[in-house]
Every structure is written in C-alpha cells, then in structure tokens.
Amino acid sequence: MNRSLHTLAASALAVAGLTAAAVHQPAAKPAAPAQGFNIFSVDQDVALGAQVAHQTDSMYQAKGQLMARGSNARAYQLLDGVVNRVLDNGNLKYRTKFPWDVKLIKDDATQNAFATPGGHIYVFTGLVKFLDNESQLAGVLGHEIAHADRRHSTQLLQRQYGVGILASMILGKNQGLVAQIAGGLAGLGTLKFSRTFEQEADKYSTVYLNGTRYYACDGAAGFFIKAEKQGSANPPEFLSTHPNPGSRIQAIQNNARSLGCTGRSVSNSNFEELKRLL
User: Fold this and answer.
1) Catalytic residue selected from 45, 198, 202, 237
2) For labelling, which of 23, 118, 124, 129 has a CA lying 20 to 30 Å from the CA of 271?
3) What are phi and psi of 121, to 5 degrees?
4) Is residue 108 annotated as a catalytic residue, yes or no?
5) Using N-to-C axis directions, what is the helix angle for 42-62 and 175-185, rounded to 10°?
6) Where's the Peptidase M48 domain (predicted)?
7) In the annotation, is 202 catalytic?
8) pLDDT surpassing 50 at residue 11
C-alpha cells in the first residue's frame, strides 16, 4: 500500500479532465491489445486483492468448501502443474508482482472459476468435472489469469463504485463492500465484465496457451462449445460473471489459428486423476 487516500484523491483530480471510458488502441497482433485506463497502482491491485481473497477464503471456509492444501496435496499438485504452465508462458506483465495462488472450492454443482485483483485464483470442483480435457482447463485458467494480469477487475470496480470508495477499501475500510465484491466475482452478485474485457481475456488465453508450447491454445473454446450444447436451461455459473458476447467460440478459434497452435494434443491422464481426486 504505497499511496494514502489523500494522494489517491489528488491523482483522481489530476486525471479528471481525461475521459472516464477505457482507452484502447488498435492491436496489430493477438498478443498486444492495449490495457485500459486505471487510476490505481499495481501495488493497490495487490492490496485490494489480498483483502478480497481473505474475505473469499473466509466465506468458503465458513461453508466448509475451501479445500485445504495439506489434506488435498495431490489434487493441488496436479492443478498447480496446469496453472504454472499457463503462468510461465512468457507474456504476463505481472508474473513476479502478483502472488498467483490458486485454491479449490468444493462445489460440484458450480461450474465456475474466478480471479481477484492481484492474481488470487479460485476454481470450483464443478468446473473441473464439467470439462473434458486439460487444454480446456488451461484455457479457462488462462482467461481468468488474463482478467487479473490485464487488471480488468479494478477497472470495472472503479467505474462501478468510484475511486473514493475503492481507495477506502484499500485503506482497510468498508469491509462490507469487500464481501460484496468477493461474492460478485464468485457469481453471487451482479459484477460482470464488459464485452471488451471478455474479448481481451479470451484473446490472451490463446496467447498464454500458445506460449506454453504444450496446450492447444483454443482450449477455452472447448468450454463454450460444451456450455452451448448444454443449452440455456442450466448454463454454467461461469457465464453469469462472464457473459457471452456472441461469436466467442469463433473468435477464440480464429486467434488460435492465427497463432498456429490448434493441433496440440496432451495426455489426459493427469486431468482424469485430478477429476477422480475431487
């Protein structure tokens, strides 16, 4: 936490003459869409993320759903393997700045994953069991990692709540709103990413998976294909916080083709073992 609320307010006044909308510049390649306007520092992303993660942990511990690493060591070993391959793809801005921890939530009825500001990742067991292979899991994780690394959450929150309220949370105040944000990210509220953020996260998912030299980089498309086949009667919770802007599958596949990484095939044995352990 490097700035006081006074400093943050001064920063807000200094940029008051700029447009409040996100600023985007054309991207020549899938690897380089511009990051949107964000008044908060990276350190403040980390500070806010730590508070949201603490609240999220408490919420799921109270329900008996937060899976401990000590008693689920092998499941975490397998999941960490996927997460670290995606994280080490060479294209993250904040690979060493954010903590990038991952936690499992025991809820087989919920097909969801989300990331807080600052890179705390949560994966519901229902999502893992919903998916068919490891490249699909890597694709969804890549999407969530992109939301954190591109700092989409604080951009969304500063628009929804305003700079002053978010600054008060960073200073340890307004814990009720921290709980509300944690629930919103988990799909329990109305916090939803914009079409632009969803498209950017999808695009970066393909870039990240391409950088692994391991996964088929259209893995996230597999999730959406399966969700589409399931129909609108009972859509995965992931779609409640990640609304489908249309043509999403085609866009992911087009990005993957442009990167030349659609034909990779990995063994599914570790993924099947992870599913059995959950």
Assistant:
1) 202
2) 118
3) -110, 135
4) no
5) 80
6) 79-254
7) yes
8) no
Whether pLDDT at 273 is above 90: yes
d(CA 235, CA 230) in angstroms, rounded, equals 7
- Distance between CA atoms of residues 12 and 112, nearest Å: 34
Q: What is the spatial distance between Cα 250 and Cα 48, in angstroms, rounded to a whole number?
A: 35
- Report the relative pairing of strands 113-115 and 121-124 from DSSP bridges: antiparallel
**Which pair of tokens denotes residue 204?**
């970066």
CB 34 within 8 Å of CB 23: yes
Name the nearest CA neighbour of 201 among 156, 171, 257, 263: 156
Please say if the pLDDT value at position 48 is more than 70.
yes
Which of 144, 149, 218, 237 is catalytic? The answer is 144
In the chain, the amino acid numbered 174 is N
Digit-coded pLDDT (tens) for 83-127: 999 999 999 999 999 999 999 999 999 999 999 999 999 999 999
- DSSP secondary structure of 205-234: HHHHHHHHTSS-TTHHHHHHHHHHHH-SSS
Q: Tokens for 159?
A: 């628009």
For the chain, what is the total number of helices (H) and then of strands (E)? 13, 3
